[in-house]
């Protein structure tokens, strides 16, 4: 049986670029590291196939200058990535609770997540030119990724408890403090609502504004959609890798 499983696994073709790599593994002799590497490759391939089959979500893009009230902002697909560019605070009202984004009206904006659908009024408070984009998350994300500044990822698969190594570095900024947090978003196991849990992070109030550590993420019931919420200042570098 093990030989048959190994043969079946060897037939899986994983393509990351113009060249195709064949994943070949003997389950009877493979080491733990080899099995974990194979699992990561298969998960990424599954995620890409889901992304190709999923319908495209509609992005809502609003822009303006200074303080404004925009009525009738209809958000159908959730969770959605909310990206703000500009020195404004945005409050969405009309749902179960008011939801405020970019609370400190940072000059470089923010990237956060909205987990409630509905028709909202967008209360924009601040100065200067601004842009607000609300984009539904889609399939095709990966558990390992890196970037700069606050970010909300697309959905990635998670089939087993996994250790992730996280590095978040805001030391190059001119801020005297920094909030560096990584959360994982997912649905509850028994209700159709979204939750997020802290993986690792801290609020730092002295230099160097850098955090490095490990966290454990695990599946929730039979849920298949997971996403990262990277809560860092603009300009902060970060990475998430599997151990």
Give a brief description.
This protein is mainly beta. It has helices at residues 2-10, 32-53; strands at 13-15, 20-22, 60-65, 68-75, 80-93, 99-101, 110-114, 118-136, 145-148, 151-152, 162-169, 178-187, 194-204, 210-217, 226-231, 237-242.
Largest sheet: 6 strands, antiparallel
What CATH architecture of the largest domain would you give? Sandwich
Q: What fraction of the residues are assigned to beta strands by DSSP?
A: over 45%
Helical content band: 10-25%
H/E series, N to C? HEEHEEEEEEEEEEEEEE
What does this structure look like?
This protein is mainly beta and 243 residues long. It folds into three domains: 2-53, no CATH class; 60-136, Sandwich (Jelly Rolls), CATH 2.60.120; 145-242, Jelly Rolls. 13% of the residues lie in helices and 48% in strands. The protein is built from two helices and 16 strands. Strands 3, 4, 5, 6, 7 and 8 form a six-stranded antiparallel β-sheet that branches.
Labels describing this entry:
about 240 residues; four-stranded antiparallel sheet; Jelly Rolls; 16 strands
Set down the secondary structure blueprint.
Blueprint: H1 2-10, E1 13-15, E2 20-22, H2 32-53, E3 60-65, E4 68-75, E5 80-93, E6 99-101, E7 110-114, E8 118-136, E9 145-148, E10 151-152, E11 162-169, E12 178-187, E13 194-204, E14 210-217, E15 226-231, E16 237-242
């Amino acid at each position: 049986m093990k030989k048959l499983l190994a043969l079946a696994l060897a037939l899986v073709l994983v393509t990351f670029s113009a060249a195709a790599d064949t994943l070949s593994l003997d389950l009877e002799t493979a080491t733990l590291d080899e099995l974990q590497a194979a699992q990561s490759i298969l998960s990424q391939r599954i995620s890409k196939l889901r992304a190709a089959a999923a319908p495209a979500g509609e992005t809502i893009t609003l822009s303006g200058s200074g303080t404004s009230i925009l009525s009738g902002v209809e958000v159908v697909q959730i969770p959605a990535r909310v990206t703000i560019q500009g020195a404004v605070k945005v409050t969405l009202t009309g749902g179960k609770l008011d939801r405020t984004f970019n609370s400190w009206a940072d000059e470089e904006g923010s990237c956060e997540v909205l987990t409630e659908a509905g028709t909202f009024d967008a209360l924009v408070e601040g100065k200067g030119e601004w842009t607000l984009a609300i984009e539904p998350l889609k399939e095709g994300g990966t558990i390992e990724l890196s970037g700069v500044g606050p970010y909300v990822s697309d959905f990635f698969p998670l089939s087993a408890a996994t250790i992730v190594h996280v590095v978040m570095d805001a030391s190059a900024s001119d801020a005297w403090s920094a909030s560096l947090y990584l959360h994982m978003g997912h649905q509850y196991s028994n209700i159709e609502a979204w939750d997020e849990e802290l993986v690792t992070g801290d609020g730092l109030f002295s230099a160097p504004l850098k955090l490095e550590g490990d966290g454990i993420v695990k599946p929730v019931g039979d849920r298949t959609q997971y996403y990262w919420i990277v809560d860092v200042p603009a300009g902060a570098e970060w990475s998430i890798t599997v151990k």
